[in-house]
């Protein structure tokens, strides 16, 4: 048990350090005028995965982890509207991976109302929906499913776009899309 506690402490420190660096660098580059969509979608994968056994994490450590997750989500929420559909699909896909491979995000993301609302609002815009390509739709739906997002209107409109782009889909795109839609429907 001691080893797992020590490993958890090191993992927490590493995760916090890397995530804080991402936040600091992202905020500095945004202040300097960087394109928010490109910056966020290209660097979000730097936020590390991390499975932490909650019973081995102190309340204070858990609060620190959740605060960093909240900061990452607030940065994303503030800049979703500046993203292209490629950047949005990449960001949602990455968030889906984080929700799967990161204990903190798995617990925190479903309650990140501002971020999920920003994604829904921007995605429901008819102009945004028309810009999605088949591959982007596939990644987007897969990410939404991983996040547990189930906005009926968004799924209906996205489903219509998927039908329009079905001829462009690779076999992987089809399987990811079908899996995503099935997962969303079961939640």
UniProtKB/TrEMBL annotation:
This is Uncharacterized protein. It comes from Eutreptiella gymnastica.
């Amino acid at each position: 048990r001691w080893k797992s506690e020590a490993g958890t402490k090191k993992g927490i420190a590493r995760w916090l350090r890397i995530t804080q660096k991402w936040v600091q660098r992202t905020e500095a580059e945004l202040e300097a005028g960087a394109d928010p969509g490109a910056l966020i979608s290209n660097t979000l994968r730097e936020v590390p995965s991390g499975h932490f056994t909650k019973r081995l994490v102190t309340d204070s450590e858990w609060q620190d982890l959740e605060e960093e997750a909240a900061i990452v989500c607030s940065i994303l929420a503030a800049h979703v509207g500046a993203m292209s559909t490629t950047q949005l699909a990449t960001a949602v896909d990455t968030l889906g991976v984080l929700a799967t491979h990161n204990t903190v995000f798995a617990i925190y993301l479903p309650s990140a109302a501002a971020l999920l609302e920003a994604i829904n609002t921007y995605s429901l815009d008819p102009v945004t929906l028309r810009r999605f390509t088949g591959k982007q739709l596939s990644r987007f739906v897969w990410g939404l499913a991983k996040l547990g997002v189930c906005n009926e209107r968004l799924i209906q409109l996205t489903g219509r776009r998927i039908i329009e782009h079905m001829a462009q889909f690779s076999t992987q795109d089809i399987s990811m899309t079908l899996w995503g839609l099935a997962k969303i429907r079961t939640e």
